[in-house]
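> call design_seq(struct)
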């Protein structure tokens, strides 16, 4: 007898319907599994066998063939344990139930308990978009499933519960829908801008960067507050909408990094060490294609401390995601495109000793040493960083002063106001912030009068800027205008935006 049940595999963030077919026939006892399963799927044979027996159910001692269709799709992970077990029980006659319209996901323990699996949320969303309305998932995946509207999700603790539900003996109540509420990040005392003394220019640059989603680079000697400024960015990031939270959660669900809340409630802040490999940044693997730090930072911040210490190949891999907002990974296991729209925040010393240009300590590096150190960051990558700010050490009196610095809450209020203006401006276009504007939006919303054109033309020629640099200056100027509640970009806005590009020009002249 043959039985069929439905499950889902993932290709990136998109779900692929998988039909699990079980055939039980006469012959010597055997258990074969076909349909391009990986090692984890093949090992499900022993988990399913023990789980069925330890659940008090009869396991067929016959010739068993399990097929995972379509055969050309690679099946990975342990989420197929539950659908395989249900298909076998149906084929053997142990379970008599109508499973049409159901999708099953879950890993089985040897005692029959259901264990959580990754990728439940994107699988359910993909299946829902194809018309599926009923799902059975492990109890521990209940919270993330509770944020998906328009479906009935049944969360079970064990295989026995699933069997009783399907047979009608003890139906499981659908998971209650959870309303998404905006949560405010509880700031640690050391991660608030109120505790960053001095550095008014750097704080202003950080505010502009967050308000428009622009990439920012802090350059300065050790101990000048670069890392402290970067660590304070999450405290001023705008709140997420439900759609943004859902998209970010899908990535973290696939990566298996989703917390107990079931949904990502705070914008990601990823800070990989400079020894991180290119694969760990971009994503991938030997066979399967998993999201890397670039995708895990989607919708949030990717912080690269000590930028020149990263491998050149790793840094160059950032160029395409910074431009396109997505990253396409090609491996032997397939080609997958992940979202990668993040705000890059980087910090670096100006030279090997760290004191070039400092007013407090003398640099001991030779010009050649400085040139080699700065050459670790390519011009094309630097060109994609909208805001480049030089910071210096703070005087002792400023550090010891009891004066109250502006808090993160005050800065966030202005940044949120600017973001609201941008959301209204780009409503329905798919653009979320000024930094994401394409050429069409830039021409429409970054119009300059003759005076502003002259200012930008002079800067373009004097600083030897590229076309990309000109475009990014316009976007930063648009953000500054939004912070000032100005409909038009003025020369003052342009002067400030241009001042954030002078470090790139100085790099080429050293």
């Amino acid at each position: 007898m043959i039985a069929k049940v439905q499950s889902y595999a993932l290709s990136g963030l998109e779900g692929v319907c998988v039909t699990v077919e079980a055939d039980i026939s006469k012959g010597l006892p055997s258990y074969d599994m076909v349909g391009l399963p990986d090692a984890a799927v093949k090992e499900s044979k022993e988990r399913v066998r023990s789980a069925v027996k330890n659940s008090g159910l009869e396991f067929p001692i016959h010739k068993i063939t399990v097929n995972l269709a379509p055969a050309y799709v690679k099946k990975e992970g342990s989420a197929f344990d539950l659908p395989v077990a249900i298909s076998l029980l149906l084929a053997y006659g142990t379970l008599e139930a109508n499973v049409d319209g159901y999708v099953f996901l879950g890993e089985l323990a040897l005692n029959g308990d259901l264990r959580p699996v990754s990728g439940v949320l994107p699988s359910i969303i993909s299946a829902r978009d194809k018309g599926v309305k009923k799902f059975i998932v492990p109890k521990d995946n209940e919270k993330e499933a509770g944020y998906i509207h328009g479906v009935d999700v049944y969360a079970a603790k064990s295989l026995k519960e699933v069997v009783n539900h399907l047979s009608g003996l003890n139906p499981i109540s659908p998971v209650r829908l959870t309303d998404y509420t905006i949560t405010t990040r509880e700031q640690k005392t050391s991660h608030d801008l109120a505790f960053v003394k001095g550095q008014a220019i750097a704080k202003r640059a950080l505010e502009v960067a967050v308000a428009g989603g622009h990439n920012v680079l802090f350059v300065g000697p050790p101990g000048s507050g670069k890392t402290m400024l970067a660590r304070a960015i999450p405290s001023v990031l705008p709140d997420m909408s439900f759609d943004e939270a859902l998209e970010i959660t899908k990535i973290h669900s696939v990566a298996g990094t989703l917390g107990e809340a079931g949904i990502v409630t705070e914008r990601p802040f990823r800070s990989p060490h400079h020894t991180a490999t290119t694969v760990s940044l971009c994503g991938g693997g030997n066979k399967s294609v998993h999201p890397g730090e670039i995708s895990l930072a989607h919708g949030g911040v990717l912080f690269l401390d000590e930028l020149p210490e990263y491998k050149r190949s790793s840094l160059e891999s950032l160029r395409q995601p910074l431009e396109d907002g997505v990253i396409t990974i090609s491996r032997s296991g397939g080609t997958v495109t992940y979202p990668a729209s993040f705000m890059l925040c980087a910090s670096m010393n100006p030279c090997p000793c760290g004191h070039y240009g400092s007013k407090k300590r003398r640099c001991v590096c030779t010009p050649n040493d400085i040139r080699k150190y700065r050459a670790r960051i390519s011009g094309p990558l630097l060109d994609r960083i909208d805001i480049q700010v030089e910071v210096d050490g703070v005087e002792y009196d400023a550090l010891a002063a009891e004066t109250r610095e502006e808090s993160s809450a005050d800065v966030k209020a202005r940044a949120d106001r600017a973001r609201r203006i941008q959301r209204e401006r780009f409503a329905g276009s798919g653009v979320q912030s000024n930094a994401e504007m394409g050429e069409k939006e830039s021409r429409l919303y970054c119009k300059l009068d003759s005076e502003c054109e002259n200012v930008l033309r002079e800067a373009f020629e004097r600083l030897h800027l590229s076309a990309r640099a000109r475009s990014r200056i316009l976007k930063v100027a648009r953000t500054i205008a939004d912070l000032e509640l100005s409909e038009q970009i003025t020369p003052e806005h342009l002067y400030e935006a241009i001042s954030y590009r002078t470090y790139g020009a100085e790099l080429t002249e050293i």
